Automatic annotation (TrEMBL):
GO terms for biological process: DNA transposition. Signal peptide: none annotated. The lineage of its organism: Bacteria, Bacillati, Actinomycetota, Actinomycetes, Streptosporangiales. NCBIfam families: transpos_IS200. This is IS200/IS605 family transposase. Residues 18-138 form the Transposase IS200-like domain. It comes from the Bacteria. It comes from Nonomuraea zeae. GO terms for molecular function: DNA binding; transposase activity.
Length: 142
């Protein structure tokens, strides 16, 4: 009797494609200001989940510290990573400024929230569990 084949949840199928695309992203606020509280990080994660969903992507893991956030995103090949990043940063900046105006204004001014640069790494080579564990362990105890 042959072992039962179990589908790999990281491999997705489209009409004409089978894919498993993951990116590790790191965003920092403008001037690397320490703007994030636990409440703001939590809301930022919710926003990022919604944005990913709108692109057909999945936010696999999210974590952050006072001055940056880490994301592990599983995204479809029809989505340009730069387009996804611009939407993640744009929507989150707009909503976080609107929902936490007093706190954010103490750290950031001039209509900016995120630094224009970001880190992106393909996660095809490393086992995803290792990347997830790395992101989970980024938050240092205060």
């Amino acid at each position: 009797m042959s072992p039962r084949w179990e589908p790999n949840p990281d491999i997705r199928r489209g009409r004409s494609v089978v894919y498993s695309l993951h990116a590790h992203l790191v965003f920092t606020p403008k001037y690397r200001r320490k703007v994030f509280t636990d409440e703001i990080l939590s809301r930022c994660e919710e926003i990022m989940i919604e944005v990913c969903d709108s692109f057909g992507a999945t936010l696999v893991e999210f974590n952050g510290e006072h001055d940056h956030v880490h994301l592990l995103v599983h995204y479809p090949p029809k989505v340009a990573l730069s387009t996804l990043v611009n939407s993640l940063k744009g929507v989150s900046a707009r909503l976080l400024r609107k929902e936490f105006p007093v706190h954010i204004r103490r750290y950031l001014w001039g209509g900016h929230f995120w630094s224009p640069s970001y880190f992106a790494a393909s996660c095809g080579g490393a086992p995803l569990e290792i990347i997830k564990e790395y992101i989970e362990n980024q938050k240092r105890p205060d």
